[in-house]
Design goal:
The structure is a single chain. The protein has about 150 residues and is α+β, with helices and mostly antiparallel strands. The strands form two sheets. It has a three-stranded antiparallel sheet with strand order 1-2-3, with no helix packed on it. Strands 4-6-5 form a three-stranded antiparallel sheet, with helices on one face. The chain folds into two domains: about 1-35; about 35-125, Alpha-Beta Plaits (2-Layer Sandwich). The chain contains two helices and six strands, in the order ββββαββα. Helices cover about 25% and strands about 30% of the residues.
């Protein structure tokens, strides 16, 4: 089964569930009275101040003109990842037409606020552990200047 979502007006979505081309499609209208949900995952460095990052993400959402006040945006600490501490911002956007603009604006604002606060967005890091039967010979060679 495949679901298709079509926009009719800013607050009405029409969901069409289609099984096959030979069967009839069922239509289920639904109002978006609470706005359009949006989510942003951010991984911060393990040594980052999570409480400060949390506050900055809420601040970014509250400053965005298309994020709704009610229901208010929330941030949750989702867990300890391989390379980061994962935070999730959930916010409702007033209109489907503004979703991409709003999500992009939130990403840019969070990035800017984190840079100003000295909070690093984590990227994958790997430690290499060598387990050799004999000692490894290590040498530093100076490159030739040509």
């Amino acid at each position: 089964m495949r679901d298709v979502m079509k926009k009719r007006d800013p607050s009405l979505l029409l969901f069409i569930a289609c099984c096959t081309l030979s069967t009839a499609c069922l239509r289920f209208p639904g109002r978006l009275e609470n706005g359009v949900p949006g989510s942003i995952f951010v991984g911060v460095a393990c040594e980052a101040d999570v409480d400060r990052a949390h506050a900055l993400m809420i601040e970014a959402a509250q400053e965005n003109e298309h994020v709704m006040d009610d229901p208010s945006p929330i941030v949750s600490f989702e867990g300890f990842g391989d390379n980061s501490l994962t935070l999730l911002l959930r916010a409702y956007i007033e209109n489907l037409d503004y979703r991409l603009e709003t999500i992009t604006g939130l990403h840019r604002s969070i990035n800017h606020k984190f840079k100003e606060a000295g909070i690093s967005i984590a990227f994958p890091q790997r430690d290499l552990h060598l387990n050799a039967l004999a000692p490894l010979q290590v040498s530093i060679v100076e490159s030739s200047k040509e």
